[in-house]
Every structure is written in structure tokens, then in C-alpha cells.
Amino acid sequence: MKFFIYCLIVCLPLTADAQWIQISQGLYPAGTMSVGGETNIFLSASEATGSTNPNIAYSHSAGEPSNSWHYFKTEYEYEFFYEMDFVNDSVGFLSGGGWFSPHRDLLLRTTNAGVSWETMTRDTLGSGYIFDDLEFISSDSGFVSSGYGPELVRTTNGGSSWSSITIDTGFNYIADIHFVNSNLGFVTVRSNSNLGTQSKIYRTTDFGDTWKKVFEHSNFYNLADIYFINESVGYVIGENGSFLKTTDGGTTWTVQFLWPYNSLNAIWFVNEKEGFLNLGGIIQKTIDGGLSWNAQMMSTPNIVSKIQFTPSGRIGYLLAGGLLYKTINGGGATTSIKSASLKDKFKIYPNPTTNQINLYCEIDLQIKAIWLTDISGRILKTFKAGEQILDVSDLLPGFYFLNIQSNEGNVSEIIAII
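Predicted structure:
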């Protein structure tokens, strides 16, 4: 078994040229993003920005050219902003707060496509609330969770006032909120091993007045993001490669665990067949409704944290490592190169190793990038494209992925360090 794991080669077939291109954003690192209509893209900073730096960046021309970006500095210097949601090209909301900052539950709103923002809620719900995830159905109606408890609150007046919603989650924290229409919605809740409770999915069909548990994980893997294509077909993703699908509006769910079993927290589908996922830490695409996935190439490899497309599905954006990436062709077609033939052009040894990896390739291959990740997809080291002896002596014993980007595609090999 160990020999099999040590020698396992996982080849990720990618396009020969990057189809997800990093674009200038002017705000780094970005923590979250939202698309408003076909041309508007919005970003918020991932950390407190102090008294001078802007919190929000926006472009009304799909992020290009670089001078199309504009900035807004809120009055909040020490608070974090966690989630952003635009309901159309003009109206959007931003949630945040901080345990050790002056303000806790924060909700900001814009009605002019990000040019200015007004505070709708601040310190009104008590010290136990920090607004984390949010989901707005319209410019008036929406839901926000605290992210640090089972609390869910609802507004019908754009955030001017809130009412508490009761869900019997067993003190499990709410992870994500998603509404398909004004009545049908879902939440995922995290597991709590101390209490012996598993991660769950709840559904409402009456705008959150009542909730019913429709799924409970058989172990303690946390569920995270929810995405529905229509009232029938939807997906939920989570830890250990958890990939759930429903075709009956959330009544029943099928469960898969997608290799390499990293935590999944970013998903988007443009139709019932074509979707995108942060599988293995990078962007991967399905064209068969999630039955199979193929990796796509990014101009600079990074760990994907958020995926969103415009309403038409024509333009897509990624947040990865605080940077913004864009595609105008669905990330490009996946390659038809056979993994075995590409793998045979590389020699990677010894494996297992203790301090270095030797890397050689055939003369017709051009190596463009080399990087090493852990099993969750987090980039640990990068190497120069021409390096043949890769120093890994500073890494702890364990399993890693050696990723190589070439002119013919990409391969990823599991490396055992002992």
C-alpha cells in the first residue's frame, strides 16, 4: 500500500495556455468579491486597512483596463469585512465587524454601484454578533449569520431592522446561506465534535419562517458553500472533498468525496452541466454536471477561495491568494493530452525523499513553473522554471504535491518526504 501511494502519479490535464488571467485590481489582498450585472466587479479588503487605505475597490468595465478601478474608504479602520453580495448592477451589501475592534455587527449598502456606501446596521444586535455570511434576495430582503454561532437574522427593509430566525442546529455554527428564490432557501451548519453533532443542511420553503433538516453528514466533516442552478438542482461542498448533489430541490442528496480530498469552499455553475470548483486548491471544471473534473490553467498558480460568473455566464472571476483572475471563455477547453504520455516525459526522483528532488524532462518540453503544495492545496514552495535539483529539506515528513506547468500541460505528482 505504501509503495502504491509513494508511486502514485496524478496528472492534471490543463490547457497549454492560461485561460484564467490575473488582472490588476488595485486592492491587495482582496478578501471577498461580488459581481453586479455583466460589467461591474467589486472587491473588499481582507484585513483592517487603517485610517488611509481604501476598504473597497470597484470597476464598471469588467476589471479592465487597470485604470478602470475606483476606490472607496469607509469610516471603519479596524473592522474586517467578510462577505459581499450584489442583487443587481447597482445595489449591493457588505457585512463585517470584529471582536476586538470598535464595532461588531456591521452591514453597509450601496445603491449606486459602489460609488458610495452607507451604514445600515452597526452595534444593534448585541456583543455576540459579528456579521459574517450574508444572502440578499432583493434590495430589501436578506439574511445574515453571525458565523460564530447558530444565529440567523432577517431583514425586509434593507438592513434598517432585523428579526431573529430560529433553527434547531444543536449549537452548530452556520457556515453558508443560499436562497434560490424568495421562498426556497438553504443553510449549512458546521459539525461540533465536542457535542457529538455532525454537519447538516436545512431547508426552508417559506422565506425562513420554518426550517427542516434535509441532510446530516455521517462523520464530522464540515459542510460549507451551497450553490443551486435552479429550484431542483443544487450542490453543497465541504471538508475532505465532500461533494453533495440534489436533483429534487434538496429533499435527497448524493454524496461523493472528490480526490485529493482537500477542503472545498468555492463553487459556481453556469448551467446544469458546466461548473467550477476549487478542487485540489486550483480551479477545476466539469462539463457533465459534476461526474468528472478537469483542471484549468491560471496565469500564476494560487489557492482559489471564491468563484463567481456574470449572469450570462460569459465572464468569470476567481479570488486566489488575494489576487483577482478573469476568464472570458469559461476558462478555456480542457486538454485532450493523455496523462500517461505527458508523465513519461518527466523523471522525478527519488520518491520518497529526505532532502531533495531531482527533476528532468525531455528536451522538447518547456517548463514554465514549478511549485509544491500540501494536500489541502496550499502553496508551500515555488522553484525557478529551470531548476533541476529541488531543495525540500525544510519540509516536515509527509505527503506533498509537486506541480509542474509546461507548454504541453501540467502534471502533479505525490511526493513522500520521510
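Summary: DSSP finds two helices and 36 strands in the chain.
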